[in-house]
TrEMBL record:
Pathway: Protein modification; protein ubiquitination. Keywords: Transferase. GO terms for molecular function: ubiquitin-protein transferase activity. The keyword Transferase applies. GO terms for biological process: protein ubiquitination. InterPro entries: Ubox_domain, WD-SAM-U-box, Znf_RING/FYVE/PHD. This is U-box domain-containing protein. Residues 1-63 form the U-box domain. PROSITE patterns: U_BOX. The keyword Coiled coil does not apply.
Length: 63
């Protein structure tokens, strides 16, 4: 599946916001990638990746 709402977590990795929120809601305070404890659970929108995905979708939908 293509990311719809990419966000960066404290580990520096980008995740689908809904999936990472479900991870946190499940009681995790660790990175899904490294399994190390995260310094915080704040998520930052990855606007550059979101824009790149939208551009890619726009350009590939006509082919």
């Amino acid at each position: 599946d293509i990311m719809q709402d990419p966000h960066v977590a404290a580990d520096g990795f980008t995740y689908e916001a809904e999936a990472l929120q479900a991870w946190f809601d499940g009681g995790h305070d660790t990175s899904p990638m490294t399994n190390l404890r995260l310094n915080h659970l704040n998520l930052i929108p990855n606007l550059a990746l979101r824009s790149a995905i939208r551009d890619w979708l726009d350009n590939s939908s006509g082919s």
